């Protein structure tokens, strides 16, 4: 396991995973964070159709506390394949026991940085882990949003968190997740490429030093080209065309027009693709499936503009390939 991308299980994200080469799929264990809209409309999650390898299964934070034990276990039974369910600090012992009896690949415990720093954390964490065989447990430490000004602060808080978890080295894997993609792109200029600082790798590298001092290896995790919160689509909402492209320490974005204003017309999409392909940010058509698709649209090899799902797939696929290349060159 080299990378844990956290995904909302949207169709575009599923398409992005499906298009990965086999050799890259072997390095990825996605965390599917199921959102209320998916829960309401999906009779079966059909995960095995797009992913035949181990994956983490979780519920979005906005919905998790509202879900009864029966509802959670019902969702878990819809998962096929090598599922690794995620449990939380506040889960009761009955839910934990029921989850453990239903899986063969172990489970994951997901804790948030603000929980670790709470006065009640150590007791809650001890009560939880005393029920588990830690050698079969993956620990996910989720820092959520990290701005450029918070990298050093939250890295220092990670060091404090390490002091609060005495048995850290006993876990099967330690995964550290963070996020810096903005919640909204509406404040950025339109019709040109704009860069946004990508802080996840900088934060991870600083946090990694604290773990290495204790002889612990950690796995990188992020939320891709999305903000960590759940975005609820409201009928009638105008979706705007945008490109999201990961490039070293930046996210490169291009904002176009809304669907109502023809933002997904091929001529406008092609103009945006040309802007990216002819820039110094473009990593070449052979870099990923997504890069080939963008190149083909720019050069009229493909004349379909795509829809919001298409462009979420392209942004996510390129991001995963970029991160895997980045991490492979680091270790």
Strand content: 15-25%
Task: Write down the CATH topology of the largest domain.
Answer: TIM Barrel
Rg result: 20 Å
Shape: globular
Mean pLDDT: 93
Regions with pLDDT < 50 over 5+ consecutive residues? none
What is the CATH architecture annotation of the largest domain? Alpha-Beta Barrel
In percent, how helical is the residue content?
25-40%
Q: How can the largest sheet be summarized?
A: 8 strands, parallel, barrel
In whole angstroms, the N-to-C terminal distance is 12 Å
**What's the CATH first level of the largest domain?**
Alpha Beta
Structural class: alpha/beta
Whole-number total of structural domains:
2
Protein name: Beta family protein
InterPro entries: Protein_beta
Pfam families: Beta_protein (PF14350)
Notes on the protein architecture:
The protein is an alpha/beta fold and 331 residues long. It has 13 helices and eleven strands. Strand 2, helix 3 and strand 3 form a beta-alpha-beta unit. An eight-stranded parallel barrel has the order 1-2-3-4-5-6-7-9. A three-stranded antiparallel β-sheet has the order 8-11-10. The chain has helices at residues 11-18, 22-25, 36-41, 61-64, 69-77, 93-100, 113-116, 121-129, 151-164, 200-212, 266-277, 289-298, 308-328, and strands spanning 3-7, 31-34, 55-59, 83-88, 107-112, 137-145, 173-179, 193-197, 219-222, 240-247, 250-258. The model has no long low-confidence stretch (mean pLDDT 93). It is globular, with a radius of gyration of 20 Å. The longest helix is centred in the C-terminal third of the chain and has 21 residues, at 308-328. Helix content is 37%, strand content 21%. The chain has two domains: 3-183 and 198-233, Dihydropteroate synthase-like (TIM Barrel); 240-327, no CATH class.
């Amino acid at each position: 396991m080299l990378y844990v991308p956290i995904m909302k299980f949207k169709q575009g994200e599923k398409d992005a995973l499906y298009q990965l080469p086999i050799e890259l799929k072997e390095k990825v264990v996605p965390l599917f964070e199921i959102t209320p809209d998916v829960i309401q409309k999906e009779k079966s999650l059909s995960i095995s159709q797009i992913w035949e390898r181990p994956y983490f299964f979780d519920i979005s934070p906005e919905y998790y506390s509202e879900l009864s034990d029966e509802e959670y276990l019902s969702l878990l039974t819809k998962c096929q394949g090598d599922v690794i369910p995620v449990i939380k600090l506040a889960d009761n012992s009955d839910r934990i026991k029921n989850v453990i009896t239903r899986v063969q690949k172990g489970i994951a415990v997901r804790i948030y940085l603000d929980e670790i720093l709470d006065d009640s954390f150590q007791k809650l964490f001890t009560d939880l882990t005393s029920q588990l065989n830690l050698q079969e447990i993956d620990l996910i430490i989720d820092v959520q949003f990290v701005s450029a000004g918070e990298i050093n602060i939250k890295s220092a808080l990670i060091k404090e968190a390490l002091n609060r978890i005495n048995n850290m080295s006993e876990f099967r894997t330690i995964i550290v997740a963070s996020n810096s993609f903005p919640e909204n792109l509406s404040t950025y200029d339109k019709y040109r490429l704009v860069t946004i600082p990508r802080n996840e790798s900088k934060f991870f590298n600083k946090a990694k030093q604290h773990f290495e001092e204790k002889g612990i290896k950690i796995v990188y995790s992020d939320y891709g080209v999305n903000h960590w919160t759940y975005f609820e689509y409201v009928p009638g909402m105008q979706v705007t065309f945008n490109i999201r492209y990961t490039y070293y320490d930046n996210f490169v974005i291009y904002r176009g027009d809304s669907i109502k204003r023809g933002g997904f017309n091929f001529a406008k999409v092609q103009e945006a693709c040309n802007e990216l392909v002819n820039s110094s940010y473009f990593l070449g058509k052979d870099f990923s499936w997504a890069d080939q698709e963008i190149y083909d649209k720019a050069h009229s090899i493909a004349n379909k503009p795509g829809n919001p799902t298409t462009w979420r797939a392209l942004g996510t696929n390129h991001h995963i390939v970029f991160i895997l290349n980045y991490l492979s060159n680091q270790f």
